[in-house]
Amino acid sequence: MALLAQTAILLKAARQLADELSADAVLMLTETDLDWDEVLELLPGDKLLIAARNRDVAAKIRAHAHLTLLDINPGPSPTQERMSLALLEAIAIEKIRPGAHVIALYNGIGGADRPEPIDSISVIHLGEHLERLSAQDLRKLDTQVPLESLRAVVDVATEIGREGREGKPVGTMFVVGDTKRVLTMCRPLNFNPFRGYAAKERDIRDPRVREQIKDIAQLEGALIIQRDGVAEAACMYIDAPAEGITLSKGLGTRHWAAAAITKKTKAIAVVVSQSSGIVRIFQNGTIVLNIPPLARPMIWSHFHMDASDGNGAGSPPAGG
Question: In this predicted model, what pLDDT tens digit does every residue of 148-171 receive, in sequence order?
């Protein structure tokens, strides 16, 4: 199964770019089974990283002795989100470092629902997006919640923080993972808008679902997301004890609730400040990552390891 002429030419171009730019890696996103031995003749095997959502293609790549598979499960995500997730995974397993230069090969025209051979090539400078994110940070977060699920939640949270809803600032909280235990420390404030819908209709990795969740996030209470990215409940009041927790002055009850629930469970909480739009990620009762509201749309950009300003006195009660 020889490579198509167009694919071979693009691979040669990627090799030339990698050599001339001293790139750290070549990332390939593909759902098409290729002649992998021929691919290795055209691309540097020690720098080649491959991500494939198709299970059969992924299995063949995994079984090849000289190929590196990035094992991700992005769900129904578009190409750019899959690429971002693949880069995060590559950093997490220390195949590349934050600040690396990567040549990306992918299907950018046909779309994820029409798998085609490689048709696009890009040069990515990770320093523009991931300079403050370390492999240690990612591994720590990934022990509790898969990166693809957490990334989707942070994606919608940063959009809410940056845009608000209908011109008004919105504060909200997501609690991701350890769902059964989390629900024992919650009580409903209103009806559950997710009840009765199939899992695929509640999958936050789907951009269409995220748009609906932005509307639901305006309701009082926390949204509960399973570790696989499926929304379980909304309008939930978090009733977890807050002993042993220390937070910066000015942070409201929503942040205290996030700290408390992550202290008592293995969940990760993502809080959007209503007053500032800042998104804070909580793990084990503390703030581990902080995203300013004006950060670039690409997720995981410009993380800071400290937090100082709060969400104002108008926050709903704990969990709101």
Answer: 788 788 888 888 888 777 777 888
- pLDDT, one tens digit per residue, over 165-202 is 777 788 899 999 999 999 999 999 988 889 888 888 99
Start-to-end Cα distance in the chain: 57
Give CA separation, 3 vs 31, 113, 120, in Å: 14, 21, 15
Q: Strands 120-125 and 101-106, how do they pair? A: antiparallel
Does 224 or 170 have the greater pLDDT score? 224
Helix, strand or coil, per DSSP, at residue 260: helix
Among the residue ranges 14-18, 29-33, 166-170, 282-286, the one predicted with the least confidence is: 166-170
What's the CATH architecture for 138-291?
3-Layer(aba) Sandwich (3.40)
SS (H, E, C) 78-131: CHHHHHHHHHHHHHHCCCCCCCCEEEEEECCCCCCCCCCCCCEEEEEEHHHCCC
DSSP 268-317: EEEEE-TTT--EEEEETTEEEEEE-TTS-SSTT-S-BS-------TTPPS
Query: What is the average pLDDT across 260-269?
Result: 92
Q: Taking a C-beta distance cutoff of 8 angstroms, is the pair 87, 74 a contact?
A: no
Number of C-alpha atoms within 13 angstroms, CB side, residue 20? 7
The CATH architecture one would assign to domain 5-131 is 3-Layer(aba) Sandwich (3.40)
Give CA–CA dist 232/31, Å, rounded: 30
Q: What is the DSSP letter of 55?
A: H
Residue 271: count other Cβ atoms within 10 Å of its Cβ: 30
* Rounded-to-integer distance, Cα 312 and Cα 15, Å: 52
Which residues lie closer than 8 Å to 211 by C-beta, 6 or more apart?
none
Domains of the chain by residue range: 5-131, 138-291
Element spanning 27, H or E? strand 25-29
